[in-house]
Each structure stands twice: as structure tokens, then as C-alpha cells.
Amino acid sequence: MPEDGGGAKGVTLTAKVFDTLKKRTKFSRAELEALCKIYCKLITSPGQHAGPKTIINGMPSTAQTIEGIDRIIFRELMHNTFDILTEDTLIERMFCCWDRDSEGAIRLEAWILGLDVFLRGTQREKLEFCFRIYDLNNDGYITKDEMFQLLKNCLIKQPSEEDPDEGVRDLSELALRKLDVDRDGKVSFQDYETAIKEEPLLLEAFGQCLPTEENCVSFLSTLQP
Ligand SMILES: [Ca+2]
Ligand SMILES: [Ca+2]
């Protein structure tokens, strides 16, 4: 049963959650409040519930869905607010990294913790975030196959080429050589960290998953009271 007729309007940060977030993130009190407001707006915006049977007489039913930012809203947010025009596989991976408990929606706390890395993460946090995204099967390694899949999706196919996958295979081979520091045939987090220290531009080698500096600044400025 919904707690009140307004549904998500009741979402607020409890004092305890607030204190935890204040400690765990780099956001100020005012920023956390602003982020909470944005969250409430996102989860109540129309078209939130993509699945069938969740809209009854124009009113979203809270019976079967957990409250949070769903995939559709997430994609729009990345697209419109942060200019991340990356393809679906990568957006899906980003969503999964944000939705830590695999609930199918990003709850308030996860949303704020994710944004902390996304907007103000340390180099180490950003490395971990990108690595998790690129490690498609979550086994702790980025393999050549995973690189192939990621690069295949980012590259525009040349129709004239006889074997369009050949270029992607070459590129995956090259990326593996660059990133596999200990030469065991796959990229561990350790490899990735070492290689990116050498060559910071490789951080997002397999597709954009972080906002530009400019987008960060402009989003953070909207949080100011
Ligand atoms: Ca993997
Ligand atoms: Ca390795």
C-alpha cells in the first residue's frame, strides 16, 4: 500500500541516511538536499514505469515496482543532462554499476553515492567505476572478447570493408597489448590501474562513461541554493 496519495512526494532523507551520505560523499548539506529534490522529480516524472500494468487510470501503481530511477529515466538523464551519448550496452553497464543491489532501479542512496564518484570521484574511484563497467561479466578481468564487444559497439562500420570485424579485432589486440601489463592475456584491475597511470587518456578507452569537466561544473552549479 502506498503510504500516501502523493507516492514519491514523501521521499526525504532521514537524518541517519543524511549523516551517512554526508560522511561518505563529498557533497555539502545543500547539495544533498538539492540531489534529493532532483531524485523525487525524476521518479515521479511521467513515463517512469515502462512495464505493463503499472499505470492504472493514469496513476502509477507502486504495488509491483520498487521506487527509484529506472533504466529509461537513467538513459535520458545520462543523455540529456550529462551528454553521454554512448550506446546501449555501455549505458546498461553503467546502470548496473549504479544499481548495486540489482533491483532494477536506482534508489536514493545509491543514486547519490553513484553521483559522488561520477561527479567528484578521485582518480582511483573513477578507475574502479570504469573497470566495473568494462568488465562485462563481473569476473574481475577485462578480456579480449569483452574489449571486442565494447569496441565493436562504439565503432562505425565501414561498409566497404570485406570483414568489418577485422579492424575491431586489431584494435582489441592493440588495447590488450597496451593494458595487459603483466602479460597474462587479460586485464586485471591492477593492470588497468598501472596502464592508466602511464597513459591517462586510456581511462575511457572502451567508451565514454564519465561526464566531461564542463558538464560536471554545470550540473553542480544547479545544486547551489
Ligand atoms: Ca570479464
Ligand atoms: Ca594481465
TrEMBL record:
The keyword Metal-binding applies. Gene3D superfamilies: EF-hand. It comes from the Eukaryota. InterPro entries: EF-hand-dom_pair (IPR011992), EF_Hand_1_Ca_BS (IPR018247), EF_hand_dom (IPR002048), Recoverin (IPR028846). It holds the Pfam family EF-hand_7. One of its GO terms (molecular function) is calcium ion binding. Keywords: Calcium, Metal-binding, Repeat. Coiled coil: none annotated. Residues 122-157, 167-202 form the EF-hand domain. PANTHER family: CALAXIN, CALCIUM BINDING PROTEINS. This is EF-hand calcium-binding domain-containing protein 1 isoform X1. It comes from Neodiprion lecontei.
